[in-house]
Amino acid sequence: MADFDPVTKAVVPAAGLGTRFLPATKATPKEMLPIVDKPAIQYVVEEAVSAGLLDVLMVTGKTKRSIEDHFDRAPELEDALQAKGDDERLSQVREPADLATLHYVRQGEPRGLGHAVLCAKQHVGGHPFACLLGDDLIDARDELLKRMIEVRGMYGGSVIALMEVPEEQVSLYGVATIEPTSEADVVRVRDLVEKPAKEDAPSNWAVIGRYVIDPAVFEVLENTPPGRGGEIQLTDALRELAGRDSEHGGPVHGVLFRGRRYDTGNKLDYLRTVVQFAADRPDLAPDFVPWLREFLDERR
């Protein structure tokens, strides 16, 4: 493995307004919406920790205080559970605070994912870092982030996660121009285009919400004008890095992910995710799955 700086920090952008879930997200961050009984953002932090990243920076906004509260201790609640002898729930309540060292910085206004990443510059410094988007949950059995960190160790530069999507969905994603490498699941990224029309898409390999990013991205983002939607796009900065060599912050590689990804970015996919997680839970599935089958049979 080449001598590249190790990845030790994770950045989790969590400053979005969550308008697709209004009115539920008027006072509750979308990242705190539960997947069964655990907020979505906790799964994201757990994923970072399982990949060895114990330093996590949350990029939040002014309405996101409950995220900080969730990852903090709750002495009164803990005391009440301890007094009842409810050790199981006590452990569940303490778990978020014990996962990692959490830091927070506020994104003053929603100016795009690229700007949210730029807000991490002071904390990350001149080191590579992982960026995990809360809309995408990756199954804990599929160690995508760990693989991406390995690929960064081999090639340097940045690494993005790519997933094959149907042609009719390419306009919802950033899409990559790719070429193969000697590794079956690794490609060289030559170009990226944000949300192309179907006929303009260079492939159907779409960028999903996992990145391992070279610190050179900060200099690029500082000089990246607002793009699609008037926002600073991370895709534009990665496109610039894709054309560079390793001495200047490049190149960009992609890991082709064929595992289990759960989307929580809109209402329909969120509901699908909750059902899938519930059906996988050994404490719920024996009752939930037969009920779900019966319910669906009655709806036919």
From TrEMBL:
Swiss-Prot/TrEMBL keywords: Nucleotidyltransferase, Transferase
Record CDD domains: UGPase_prokaryotic
Top-level enzyme category: transferase
MF terms (GO), sorted A to Z: UTP:glucose-1-phosphate uridylyltransferase activity
Record-linked Gene3D superfamilies: Spore Coat Polysaccharide Biosynthesis Protein SpsA, Chain A
SUPFAM superfamilies documented for this protein: Nucleotide-diphospho-sugar transferases
Top-level taxon: Bacteria
GO biological process: one example: UDP-alpha-D-glucose metabolic process
Protein family according to the UniProt entry: Belongs to the UDPGP type 2 family.
Name under which the protein is recorded: UTP--glucose-1-phosphate uridylyltransferase
